[in-house]
Amino acid sequence: xxxxxxxxxxxxxxxxxxxxxxxxxxxxxxxxxxxxxxxxxxxxxxxxxxxxxxxxxxxxxxxxxxxxxxxxxxxxxxxxxxxxxxxxxxxxxxxxxxxxxxxxxxxxxxxxxxxxxxxxxxxxxxxxxxxxxxxxxxxxxxxxxxxxxxxxxxxxxxxxxxxxxxxxxxxxxxxxxxxxxxxxxxxxxxxxxxxxxxxxxxxxxxxxxxxxxxxxxxxxxxxxxxxxxxxxxxxxxxxxxxxxxxxxxxxxxxxxxxxxxxxxxxxxxxxxxxxxxxxxxxxxxxxxxxxxxxxxxxxxxxxxxxxxxxxxxxxxxxxxxxxxxxxxxxxxxxxxxxxxxxxxxxxxxxxxxxxxxxxxxxxxxxxxxxxxxxxxxxxxxxxxxxxxxxxxxxxxxxxxxxxxxxxxxxxxxxxxxxxxxxxxxxxxxxxxxxxxxxxxxxxxxxxxxxxxxxxxxxxxx
Length: 461
Known about the structure:
Elements: H1 19-30, H2 36-51, H3 57-69, H4 74-117, H5 121-149, H6 153-167, H7 173-190, H8 222-250, H9 254-265, H10 273-287, H11 293-304, H12 313-324, H13 331-361, H14 368-397, E1 401-406, E2 409-414, H15 421-436, H16 441-457
Helix pairs in contact: 1-4, 2-4, 3-4, 4-12, 4-13, 5-11, 5-14, 5-15, 5-16, 6-7, 6-14, 7-14, 8-9, 8-13, 9-12, 9-13, 10-14, 11-12, 12-13, 15-16
């Protein structure tokens, strides 16, 4: 009929491709997800968009834009979203689960090695090399995120204000995040340039299975949303409740503290792992005393060497904290249980947020108000990551520090006479190879670990 409106192309069934084939692809992706979110997104781009042609370029970037608006690791959430596009809820669960599984198992083993052998001379020498390298990794993150995010003087000012608020005024991390989103939206009302979408590039190659204007077959309904929300909330908090019962019978309150703290952190982790680690480090070291200051750097170094989201470092925090506060449980049992609980409450919300919101986002394109809020948050993240770099440098390059309080100002400053010349030297090497020669974090960590061992062998540490 001439009056009929043509339907946009969209999948009409449950699976765009066979689930077994998609699972195989996600397993291959999961073994290559080194190098932080940029590297992880690049792996998915190559596999799903360029090689397989399962998803179009603009379609892939639309999903990424939504995931960047969410708290949590955007690369893992992108895996959940694209898995859902390809195979529905089953596909999203498989893609998101496989994305974190190899890294979780690897970091669980490394955390055990650290607790068991971290005080030996060889391991101490290794960490003496990798801890300074982490400073360079975080500095590079500041540079990369800043280059992408700070494309207007107002955004530069927002980044600086975030850094000052965290570093000198001790403003809580969640307050900085939400204030930045609000300011980003308000600034966009006066500065239209902040509301304009940033160019993403083009798509080349054969027509993908899910084209750029495709709509998913799963419609957003109140019944579906209620079901996903209820099941997601139960799965998220039921283990915390179970561990609370266990804590009452074993005298291990660390389970409750970690379950509640990291559940809360999961909803404020805007801007990626480096941003939230500033918040986690402050609380885990200064409030709960799960770790010593230098150990947060070591945990991040371990997480950098494993595949999967960098936020997996929270598993290390939980493992070490519970090992040292096991109550009446055997320390190794408490450590493993705590690491599994924290991994669960960190990543289950990612599935909930994506599977709840994705059907609505399929019908919501180029919402500039949301984009402006994200622009403000992303600008603030530059300041947050810079704060993390200062934290790591303070506790790696100097053996002692003191707190300076003057009115509204609360800042930790180093005792200059306690500087560590070896740490300074290795940090300088790491900065040169990463910023000048473009080395990857993994390669830089390997070099600096070798330097640490070499310096130990010749007797300088």
